[in-house]
Amino acid sequence: MSPSAVAQLPQHDMGLAKIDMKGKGSSNGHTNGVNGVKKPEFLLDRNLHKTFPLVTRGKGNYLQLADGRTIFDATSGAAVSCLGHGNERVIKAINKQLTTGVPYLCSSYWSCDVVEELCKELINGTGGEMSRIYLTGSGSEAMEASIKLARQYFYEGDKNTPRVNIIAREGSYHGNTIGALGVSGHVARRAPYEPFLMKVHRVSACNAYRQRRERESDASFVARKASELEAKFQELGPETVIGFVCEPVVGAALGCVPDVPGYLTAMRAVCHRHGALFILDEVMSGMGRCGTLHAWQAEGAAPDLQTVGKGLGGGYQPIAAVLISDKIVSSLSNGSGQFVHGQTYQAMPIQAAAALEVQKIQREENLIKNVQVQGAYLEKRLKSLLGGHPNVGDIRGKGLFWGLEFVKDKQTKEPFDTKLGVAQRVHDIAIAAPFNMTMYPGTGTVDGIAGDHVIIAPTYIVTREEIDHITKVVAEVVQLVFEKIGDV
Q1: Which family does the record assign (predicted)?
Q2: What architecture (CATH level 2) is domain 3-86+367-487?
Q3: What is the per-residue pLDDT across 183-228, written as a single tens digit (0 to 9) for each?
Q4: Residue 64, helix vs strand vs coil
Q5: CB within 10 Å: which end of the chain, N or C, has fewer?
């Protein structure tokens, strides 16, 4: 397939006004740079040497750029915009809260109905497995709070508790704050800050593509992982372990690597056998993204603590949460009666109003069913179009959360030289004309430094027709990238 063969993006869903190019697409009259692209002058952005396309409007699955292009958002941003852009119900809910005059309240001495209603919605979504909700502003903050809650759970019963050790996994990513990054196992992201990071003990990831032995069954693979965790408990001393932290489906660090069936149950059993906590990070994979409201529900392996984030508010407000089991709440209630932690912008009414409406829409419109149906079709189309490609080593994921891992050699699974920047090339070509579609690139897939993958994570409102478009573009871009690499 050639780039010219890519179908043009459907326009019927946009509902966007044409850009006034005299104002270069700006809604405030300020110049937005040449050709709708601007190098940041005042913002410390993610890359000081790049220019970025300017977005002026958004609706549904589409973004309008100042250069006149329409971009199909096939990744929901960073797996965030689960309802798409410009949802009128969510915008109305935000505006309604704004009209009360209290978008913010200090949680040290005020309460608010909309905050309580959101928390009730979240608890109901766990089938009563969780007891309380701690609301904050980002996934990193939620993980930071989880680490503290886990430690305080034991501290409440014994101020001299020996439980000081956390076990996490290699090839993991749990956030950017010092505590959350300390738990993370992504080598490259940790590197500049290693002297500051707390000591966390590690076991291997649950990566069947790279770790499964020849003819090894799921049950045998899981048993091996559980034995590894048990050995780590014994090495540290079971009485010293606070808990084990993992992502049911590893997002940014590994590119949508899912747990093997039975893994979560087995790892939880090891933790609970030794009185330690089972902690799940579902910031990226949760809130419907993997085909169940919570990824752990596919297996029924409820955690003691769980973080959620991106799909909670769908990008309409910065919000994340810690879902807390009854035994942890009881420990605090019977002890000091408080969580020794707090942040200025926690449990904000405006955040809660947006997230509550996002969750109501998802539930009322049965969007998780669409995630399941379209996710199965996405898997089928990706594997049909790219399963035989010599440089696509693995296609994996769940629901509407899929990753492609690229390899230099399909037999040996050798990654490409990091200098080639394969994942970034895929992204750069995909987002440019004529493709005009997002793909979420990632590196360090193999060892935290080498290895390339991209993530496809469309909105929960995506249609079958749009899945056809997404997969066609993915296939064409991948083909073009590796043709170019072959010519180098």
Answers
A1: Belongs to the class-III pyridoxal-phosphate-dependent aminotransferase family.
A2: Alpha-Beta Complex (3.90)
A3: 999 999 999 999 999 999 999 999 999 999 999 999 999 999 999 9
A4: strand
A5: C
Q: How many CB atoms lie within 10 A of CB 84?
A: 21
The pair of three-digit structure tokens given for residue 180, joined into one six-digit string: 């959350």
Residue intervals of the chain classified under CATH 3.40.640.10 are: 90-364
Burial environment of residue 158 by CB neighbours within 10 A (0 to 12, 13 to 18, 19 or more): exposed
Determine the distance from the C-alpha atom of residue 174 to the mean position of all C-alpha atoms in its chain, rounded to a whole number: 10
Query: Does the global pTM surpass 0.85?
Result: yes
pLDDT in tens, 102-143: 999 998 889 999 999 999 999 999 999 999 999 999 999 999
Q: Among the CATH numbers 3.40.640.10, 1.10.3720.10, 3.40.50.10860, 3.60.120.10, which is that of 90-364?
A: 3.40.640.10
